[in-house]
Amino acid sequence: MWSTVRVLRRPILRQQGLRRLSNAPQVEGTTKDNAEIDTEEAIKPFDAIPGRPQGLREFIRMFIKLKQGALRKPWEIVEEDRALFGPIYKSGFGVYKVVSVFDPKDIETLLRHEGKHPYRPDLVPWLAYREYRGYPKGVLLLHGPEWLRNRSALNQRMLRPKVISGHAGTINEVVDDMIRRLKLKSSQGSDLVVNDLESDLFKYALDGAGSVLFDQRLRLLDDKLHPDAETFINSVHTVFKEFVSLVIVPPKLQKMLNTKSWRKHTEAWDFIFSHAKKLVEAKMEKVTKTLEKEDFEEGEADFITYLVSQGKISTEEIYANITEMLSAAIDTTSNALKWSLYEVARQPEVQERFYEEIKSVLSGREVPTADDIAKMPYLKGVVKETLRLYPACLSFTRILDHDIVIRGYRIPAKQPISCQTFIICRDPKIFEDPLKFKPERWLRTGKSDINVFASLPFGFGPRMCLGRRLAELELHLLLIRIIQTFRLESLNDVEPVFTTLVTPNEPLRLKFTQREL
To answer: What pLDDT, in 10s, does the model give residues 340-349?
Structure first.
């Protein structure tokens, strides 16, 4: 578990906590940074960080805002406080306080000092369920050496680009099914409404993830009914939907009162674990037979076979990690695809440039390979720009086991520090025309002035999103085929709202017209 707290001595803190910024990329418009704080006397105590006075008045203020619908756009509250207090401030209730930061260079300072076992706050509702049912935790909920042991085993297959790119053929099979369904719907002469498209995108994400994790197709996009898969997807939606409620009112209290939110949350996780276990157990039977063969080649092993053969994590831990990865893959990947299609559909010039790049690289071929993706910088720009405007998380929080100095303030060990990435990604001081969808801003036509810590949709360092490579492969391959096959047009305008993820405030209406071949 989490290692014993270490408090660094001040001279060491100043030297280690500040020296990293001397070579940090310069970001236009950022204010005075830590590199200018070079004397012990200049370092201010934690209590000097600005923020709203805590107490009953602040609780009432926040309660009123939430009743007025502030939870739909929580970034507006954060923007209001930043305008009042500046690029670093405290907020929270009672003994719990979080420090918010808004400068990419401050984020770099924090992430460069995470250490061997990066710690982030617990996802309390999901942890409460594991404890309630006595289920093991995967890397999403683990900390310390136990986390590192699990994460190291999973990294070997999930974060190596060559390993994931080797699954492009199977992912393309899933893409084939998705394109077939879109062609069928568009040939009927009706506009595709997101309610139809969204359901297929959920199935695409789950089928794609399953093809990698289980080394076999789930075939969710055929014309057959898949009631268990449908229930699994709906259960994941429920888990995300009830998350906020269980954060506002602690799950322990909701469990004691047996609230509707707690019951729905528990029933959803019950099915998720049950269905995932069936899939893993079916695969385990094949794994046992594979490992008994004398000609077993470790380098050719699929994901679960590799984990079992290595023996670094237990069978129970394999169940937990597979369940977490399947659950995380559905809403996040499908949501990114939805926003990408929306932005491309509403900007003909972006769509045309994207289409021309596809034609140029594929040269008449229909199905792209992983090597083709490497030759499509505009495609990658489309995905990066989508995730800049519509990241999966509004912010991310880290907790260090030692003191750190940020913007001249000494922040003590164990103090949560929140990086407000959603607001950073829409800051005109950091991104020119921040609300405009401009994939070309990511093209390497010269020296980029974008600080890499300004947009971190998959996180950074040891706790970077475990499914990053798979998500990118699924995004790239499907976007290529859709733009290659259809002209898109958006029939309505939407704006982002918060529903655990950043989602459209109303259903998208996208028109798909088949291109003439």
So the answer is: 999 999 999 9
Query: Coil, helix or strand for 101?
Result: strand
Contact between 255 and 129 (Cβ < 8 Å): no
Interatomic CA distance for residues 467 and 157, integer angstroms = 10
Nearest alpha carbon to residue 439 among 316, 352, 360, 510: 352
Asked if 108 contacts 24 with a C-beta cutoff of 8 angstroms, the reply is yes
Angle at 320 between CA 319 and CA 325, to 5 degrees: 100
| pLDDT tens, residue by residue, 187-236 | 766 667 766 789 999 999 999 999 999 988 999 999 888 999 999 999 99
For residues 482 and 361, give the distance between their C-alpha atoms in angstroms, rounded to a whole number. 15
What does the CA dihedral 91, 108, 17, 447 come to, rounded to 10 degrees? -140
Q: For 99-149, write each residue's pLDDT tens digit.
A: 999 999 999 999 999 988 889 899 999 999 999 999 999 999 999 999 999
Q: Whole-angstrom Cα distance, residue 513 to residue 119?
A: 48
Residue 455 structure tokens: 């947009």
- Counting every residue written for the chain, the total comes to 517
CB contact at 8 A, 393 and 465: no
